[in-house]
UniProtKB/TrEMBL annotation:
CDD domains recorded: RNase_HI_like (cd09279)
Pfam families associated with the record: RVT_3
Stretches assigned to the RNase H type-1 domain: 24-159
Gene Ontology molecular-function annotations: nucleic acid binding; RNA-DNA hybrid ribonuclease activity
Region (Disordered): 1-20
Lineage: Bacteria, Candidatus Methylomirabilota, Candidatus Methylomirabilia, Candidatus Methylomirabilales, Candidatus Methylomirabilaceae
InterPro entries, alphabetized: RNaseH-like_sf (IPR012337), RNaseH_domain (IPR002156), RNaseH_sf (IPR036397)
Protein name: Ribonuclease HI family protein
Length: 172
């Protein structure tokens, strides 16, 4: 079942229906992507949240206005981290096709751009909040071929915004 609600596509029970997620060992696999047409240009983000047991599937997409591709990637990460924080999982595995974002979060690359530094700090804050309550989080770079659905959501956000399709609200 697909239920569009406030920028969210949902296949499965509402997260509130899951009993005590952290204690129950909820594990999330989250694919993220940001897209910008032009750099900067109209940009969107896509986030796919799946539980390992198949009880939860939530897809999000949002138009973020004019931005660079790297800003869109960070905005997708922030949305993913906020959703993870809300769901209180025991384990979160994030997959992105942005090597820059993944290596910056892993501490392998420095963050030099001022706008990205702000987003990076917000991401680290959310990661520390998740870690402080016992959530194990990892982020991994994957090839584009393994991230097509998140890419499609990010591009859907741009397409709908450029076509003037109204949204019934935004999350996060």
């Amino acid at each position: 079942m697909t239920d569009r609600h406030a920028g969210e596509l949902s296949d499965g029970p509402a997260p509130q229906a899951l009993p005590e997620p952290r204690r129950m060992g909820l594990q999330l696999m989250i694919h993220i992507d940001g897209a910008a047409r032009g750099n900067p240009g109209p940009a969107g983000i896509g986030v796919m949240v799946n539980s390992g047991n198949g009880l939860l599937r939530r897809d999000f997409y949002r138009y973020i206005g004019k931005a660079t591709n790297n800003v869109a990637e960070y905005e997708a990460l922030l949305l993913a981290l906020r959703e993870a924080k809300e769901l209180q999982p025991a384990v979160v595995e994030i997959r992105s096709d942005s090597q820059l974002l993944v290596r910056q979060i892993q501490g392998r690359y420095r963050v030099r751009h001022p706008r990205l530094a702000v987003l990076y700090a917000q991401a680290l804050n959310l990661i520390h909040q998740l870690s402080a309550v016992g959530c194990r989080l990892s982020i991994e770079h994957v090839g584009r071929e393994l991230n097509r659905q998140a890419d499609a959501l990010a591009n859907r956000a741009i397409d709908e915004a450029l076509a003037g399709i109204p949204r019934d609200g935004e999350r996060s």
